[in-house]
Amino acid sequence: MMRAAKHGVVLIPGLLCDALLWKAQIEALQPDFQCWIADHTRSDTMAGVAADVLRESPFERFALAGLSMGGYAAFEIVRRAAYRVDRLALLDTSARADSSEQRRKREAFIALAKRGRFVGVTRALLPLFVHRDRLDDAELVNTVKGMAKNIGREAFIRQEQAIMSRADSLPLLPTIGCPTLVLCGRQDAITPLDRHEEIAGGISGATLRVIERCGHLSPLERPAEVSQALKAWLAAG
């Protein structure tokens, strides 16, 4: 008797993050689900990032989860090919386009990187990425810094350009009809809780899950809680 094929799950990391972001979730899901990490480093527009994922995904239909920049890409994938996405998880992200102030900050980071001053995630930037209680967690800090080093300067510039190019996804929210999980750390300093309440309020039937004592990188900071939330999302009807 042939075994049923495992459900495909596409995971998209955030800015300056790679597959290490999802390591614990892959381990938790892999017995029952086939996980694939999308490459979000090669295109400098969000349309290009979405096209890369759709072209290279090994699954025709899949569950789609993205964190931060990965969430922006997930919105663009739904905009272009909703028929391929059978459920959606949006972690520590926003449906809004960049404000003028956010664009100026990104442009400044790009200018620094182009002048050869790419520093990845420094000690000074860590409080934006993780909860203050985890700043002395050497393993976590080294993983965050290591991911940024793995991404590198050129890909970082492309990622920032892609993020700035993204569309406002607020009008997209009411059109999303698949089971949707919206998840964030309560102390997320980059995409605060109100951004997630906005997303969950705009998608009919969406589930909002808030992870306590957690910052922006919830899959790394609170792996067990995030894995449990993803399992429940994948089991939802």
Structural write-up:
The protein is of the alpha/beta class and 237 residues long. The protein is 44% helix and 15% strand. The chain is built from nine helices and six strands. The protein has helices at 23-29, 46-56, 69-81, 100-114, 126-129, 138-165, 193-202, 218-221, 223-235, and strands spanning 7-12, 33-37, 62-67, 85-91, 180-185, 207-211. Strand 1 (7-12), helix 1 (23-29) and strand 2 (33-37) form a beta-alpha-beta unit. The longest helix has 28 residues, at 138-165.
Key phrases:
globular; single chain; alpha/beta; 6 strands; 237 residues; six-stranded parallel beta sheet; Rossmann fold; 44% helix
Topology:
Layout: E1 7-12, H1 23-29, E2 33-37, H2 46-56, E3 62-67, H3 69-81, E4 85-91, H4 100-114, H5 126-129, H6 138-165, E5 180-185, H7 193-202, E6 207-211, H8 218-221, H9 223-235
Parallel strand pairs: 1-2, 1-3, 3-4, 4-5, 5-6
Helix pairs in contact: 1-9, 2-3, 2-6, 4-6
